[in-house]
Input
Amino acid sequence: MGACRRRPDDSKGQGLVEFALVLPIIVLSIFAILDMGRAVYAFSTISNSARAGARVAIVDQTIATIQQSAVSQSVALGASAADVVVCFKSGTSTQQTCSQPATDPCPNPYLIGCLAIVTMNHQFTPVTPIISSIVPSIAMSSTTRMSIERVNP
Output
């Protein structure tokens, strides 16, 4: 009658062993999600910084002022003026970035209708040890192009 019945202490510790096997995977997943959130935040911040720099560039073409404006929008990332690339192209330019500064430049003094191109660069580094050993860093970049509306004398 009692042949199919198990004694209650036969499976003692089974739950503890299963938990010990699953815990590292759960912790790694949580940290990976946190790192992904940090990466999304970093990209959103550099996009906002490039946009803020371009908004200044359309009314004030001083490179230092543009860089300062972009850097001030990305304080949490520890950005510097070296992370901000600024160039001015002619209004008919098809250039999307400042990678070829000599190609299709806007005449200096700048003219209304020229394009102000501001690029913000950032190196994102994950904090999770396992993830950072797989992907040590990710180069992020965001570029904003806007037309000059007012020329600063």
